[in-house]
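Q: Joint fold for the lines below.
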Amino acid sequence: MSPDGTIAPRRAAGAVLAAAVACAAASRAADPAAGPPPVRRIAAPPAVRVLVPAARFKFEVRESVGFDLDAATLGALSIADVTARLGTQPAGVALPFDGPGGGSLTVHFSAEARRLSVRLAGGAELASIEADPPGRPLRLCLRQRDQAALFVVPPAGGPAPLVWSGRVDYRILLPEADQYTLCRDLRATMGSRTLKPSDVREGILLDSLDEAAPVRIEGVSPGGAPFVHEVPIEPRALEDRVDRAVAELVRTLQTGAAAPGEAARAAP
Amino acid sequence: MPPRDARILAACALVAHAACAAPAPADLRRIAVEAPRGEAARAAREWDRLRWTAAGVEAKDVAPLLGSFGDPATRGAWDSFVALHGASTIRVIAAMADTAGQQENVPRALAVLLGAVPARDLAAEIADEASGAARRKVRALLAEVAGRIPDAALLGRICEVLLLLWWYEDVPDVAIRGWTLTQDEAFVRLAAAAVRRGGLEASAGTAVRRLAGGRDKATRGAELVFWTRLARETGAADAVRGSLRPADLERLSAGEADSVADDWMTMGLGDELEALLASAASPVLLYLRSRVRAAAGRAEAAAGDAGAAVARLSVGEAINQQAAFELAEIMERRGDAETAYRVWTAIVERPPGGAVQDANALLRLARRAELAGDLRKALSLCEQALRIGRDLGSGTGLSGPGGSRGTEWLMRAILDLKRRVPAAYPAPAP
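A: Joint structure:
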């Protein structure tokens, strides 16, 4: 079988073809005048792992999103009724869920308007979420960048007390990363950030998904041929996948409870 | 010179020197065993090297080390050699492949190496080869020897080595061989990794078209299933679209046709599949068409096809038992348990009786009764199956539920049910 999709009818022919491919690669490696290698775009999406320190529980959810959770985070997710992500502007700014001196995010539920409003230190409304508590306190898991928090929303309205908050990290696993195991002179970047070879092979650790950017990998293949790979990573698409995965994980963890419905999205 | 090269050459030189000196085997063993503490390991290594000389082989180069490879007197010596030299042994195997009289030993030698050394180490050793010619030689060797190794686990190792070295074009052939041995989905995943990394997505369609063209009839069905599954795994629906004709599906076994149809439906090729099945006449193909039509929301047409599939099983008063059994297996696999139950019941109740399909259908009815809590009925059905099995003789290969071994499943079920039945249904008081 060859890269153009034809299959050699005999193994011997396959070996000849393979040898030809290897010869071409070797000649490219030996001849600097052959020019830079063509850039290959890796279309497959990267996998994402949501991590907390001292994780003990692993979950795999569809769309190649996995979770490594500790008991506290797992407990919070398993009792959440609704999940929402708080998009903050400008990108890269995280507002504290449990900051000192009252400078934290607060959640208030208006029973008349059936809306949750998220404010910073009781100031202007940062986000508004439709909510319909089911006749009992609604447990809202609110996420932003590297933080997650669980609020309990009183059905009669009023401020929703914070009952738990924690931090998460993210690991971006490049598609088919195993192929770089024996490559030499590996150089990689994610946007303007320089990556280590171990990042390419074992995953890129991020505080928040908005730090993600397209990845470019250069090096020399095990056969001695230079290569350039590009992985187009779009932070927004990653965040959407993680949103869906969190909602699905919450649904999976809930036993005996009514399905909480689709994950709500907090408007910035 | 890379250190591993130096090590191999040192071993060769040592063997050559030892051949001249020709120490007796007993002396060598004594040196190894009686060496002072601290020297024991070194002495043991020397013994391991020199034992080849002790076996009486000529030491002109590396290959003659293995002159008595198949000799029971030196059995285990190759294992020791691999344990000592690790991945670098691949160079010795490459030399064997070039030596007259040694080629037949290459598969076993490679099997020992693959079983003893991690795939990554072996791939790294090959990648460290200074010359491209040497790498290409090993590549050809791996691809060729894979065709002579009848062990799926070792074929999986070869696939891993080929993947690590970016020799993607060679992986599908090796994976197909592993697949035909075990039907293990791991081989599809290995080949899919090669296809994705090598940008070979179009190859699935080419392969299906060639297979459908009539080459290699003995393995065509299994290979067709493999390539179709590979297309599904790599999302290459366009590559296989239009690659089959109606006659190609008719030539497949029931299980193969079901697998291919399921993959085509998963790839969103339901319309094309229905067109292929337009003139379906066999029970299995009619049933597959009913699934396509049901998935498209045409419930009435689907029910008609499913009914026709079951009706085609009848031969007068009798039933085509093999066709019925194959159809019921597909029905159960696809979640159509009620219809499968009716077909198994028909197999048992209608003539001819006393066949292996009767016993296999009874096993499935027994499992269903057990799951429903009717343990006494389950036990009775198992005992009927046992009687049929005994009448048919010991060579009868029963097939248990879920692909298990039938006889083992049956014996375990009878023992288990006999233990549980009295508790569930206590005997009436005298």
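Q: Anything notable?
A: The longest helix of chain B spans residues 3-21. The mean pLDDT of chain B is 79.
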